[in-house]
């Protein structure tokens, strides 16, 4: 009875862990394929790295002259804007971004925006702190992908890089070119020297603890605790104490894991509804599980 409720928890925990693995659709661009675009700069020598797997963003860049950096950001064409922002803090507010989109008639627009605040009227077009080389920007749609290219005039671009993607079918329009709120965004750290990109470290540490806590508690300790209850009954009353101790420990770790999930969701502004719903379900099942001996004792009395 108890073992079967544990296996239900285990089943949902596995399902929940799997719900974060997103399957990307077949991509028409990868770091193995050459760029075949008509750009104002040479594209054969660019470093290439996937920077946002959830939306299949690929970044190519190289330092050209001592103070000129070439960038090409490739993303699926979803009829929305794509943006690459540079930030001193890792936050959107205060950052400057290069934003590009392709209109229905096929013409592309690239603009710099300054993100002065969360409200749309604080996100202003044609402002910001990036020195974009004159006439270096372009955006091209090709094989269901868009390629946003630009050159920055700086000795060292900021390493806290943000990427965002707009609502499908919503693109900025004249005269104000107001930028509607993004559909999704990510904050990363780009190491230009080694050519590696990672999600912002404090978040990735939190993400790691979230994963490890949940796996340890719901995936391992709960099972061990249940087995102690099921198979070691001949060692009475030790079996009960060890069973209860392991189960409570698993529950507390699991609770910490789920709370870290909420903090993470809040900080990352992530869309993880299925994952979250399953997590709450596991927590509820876990509560019932941990309380079951108490219920059991009360029912004897
Ligand atoms: C560097 O810039 C020059 C002049 O803008 C251009 O001709 C050349 O192709 C660039 N090199 C690379 C590697 O992009
Ligand atoms: C960046 O640019 C914006 C708008 O152009 C300006 O208000 C802000 O003070 C600038 N920030 C820095 C640090 O230069
Ligand atoms: C970069 O900026 C410096 C100083 O503002 C300027 O002298 C130089 O011509 C610029 N380089 C390019 C390629 O625009
Ligand atoms: C940029 O493009 C405009 C319009 O095509 C042109 O008038 C201007 O001379 C160009 N600037 C540079 C630095 O090439």
Automatic annotation (TrEMBL):
Localization per Swiss-Prot or TrEMBL: Membrane
Span of the signal peptide: 1-17
Residues annotated as domain Cytochrome b561: 173-301
Organism the protein comes from: Gossypium tomentosum (Hawaiian cotton)
Record field: transmembrane: 211-232, 244-264, 276-298
Keyword RNA-binding: no
Protein name according to UniProt: DOMON domain-containing protein
Domain of life: Eukaryota
Pfam families: DOMON
CDD domains: Cyt_b561_FRRS1_like (cd08760), DOMON_DOH (cd09631)
Alphabetic keyword roster: Electron transport, Membrane, Signal, Transmembrane, Transmembrane helix, Transport
Listed GO CC annotations: membrane
Protein's UniProt keywords contain Electron transport: yes
Residue ranges annotated for the DOMON domain, each copy included: 55-166
InterPro entries: Cyt_b561/ferric_Rdtase_TM, DOH_DOMON, DOMON_domain
Alphabetical list of SMART domains matching this protein: B561, DoH
């Amino acid at each position: 009875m108890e073992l079967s409720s544990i296996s239900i928890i285990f089943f949902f925990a596995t399902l929940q862990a799997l719900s974060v693995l997103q399957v990307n659709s077949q991509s028409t661009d990868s770091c193995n394929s050459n760029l075949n675009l008509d750009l104002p700069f040479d594209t054969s020598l660019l470093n290439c790295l996937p920077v946002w797997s959830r939306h299949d963003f690929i970044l190519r860049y190289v330092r050209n002259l001592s103070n000129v950096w070439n960038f090409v950001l490739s993303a699926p064409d979803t009829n929305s804007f794509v943006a690459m922002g540079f930030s001193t803090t890792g936050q959107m507010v205060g950052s400057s971004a290069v934003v590009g989109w392709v209109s229905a008639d096929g013409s592309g627009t690239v603009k710099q925006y300054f993100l002065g605040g969360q409200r749309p009227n604080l996100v202003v077009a044609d402002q910001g702190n990036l020195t974009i080389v004159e006439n270096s920007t372009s955006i091209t749609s090709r094989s269901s992908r868009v390629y946003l290219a630009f050159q920055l005039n700086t000795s060292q671009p900021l390493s806290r890089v943000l990427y965002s993607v707009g609502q499908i079918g919503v693109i900025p329009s004249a005269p104000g070119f107001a930028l509607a709120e993004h559909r999704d965004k990510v904050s990363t750290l780009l190491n230009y020297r080694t050519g590696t990109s990672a999600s912002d470290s404090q978040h990735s540490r939190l993400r790691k603890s979230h994963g490890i806590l949940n796996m340890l508690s719901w995936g391992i300790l709960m099972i061990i605790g249940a087995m102690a209850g099921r198979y070691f009954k001949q060692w009475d009353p030790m079996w009960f104490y060890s069973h209860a101790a392991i189960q409570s420990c698993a529950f507390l770790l699991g609770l910490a894991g789920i709370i870290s999930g909420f903090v993470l969701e809040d900080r990352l502004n992530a869309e993880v509804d299925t994952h979250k719903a399953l997590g709450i379900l596991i927590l509820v099942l876990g509560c019932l599980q941990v309380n079951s001996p108490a219920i059991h004792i009360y029912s004897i009395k």
